[in-house]
Amino acid sequence: MLDKLKVYEYMYYDLLSNQLEVCLVPSINPDRAGNGCCARAVVQRNPKWYRDFCALFLDTRGKTFIKRRNVLRALNRLKDGKTTRFRWRDYLEDINETLQQDLNITETEADFFAEYGEMPTPFTDQF
Fold this sequence. Notes:
The chain is mainly alpha-helical and 127 residues long. Helix content is 49%, strand content 10%. It has a domain at 4-19 and 47-116.
């Protein structure tokens, strides 16, 4: 099992390398396709743990209060063993504990990921 700092490091690089990306594709509705209407298609998603985290803090319009840059800043400090005044630090600690149990990677794989930032996320996301 990975230690707490390694999991924070994994979370940091996982969030850094996976970001929501959408593109426009022609509409499948024949009435609209001729008018140049397009639909949005997901190319890449945020990590599942981050999506679940953001879903906890939605406003009345369905937008999250969580800012990606603040989470990255907090994770960067936490992975280095420093403290942070991040407002939702306790939630990140809970996610860390859950990931420590769920991640099925070895120390060597975690070191490779930290150095090169390339390793598929162990979660199976359905698109």
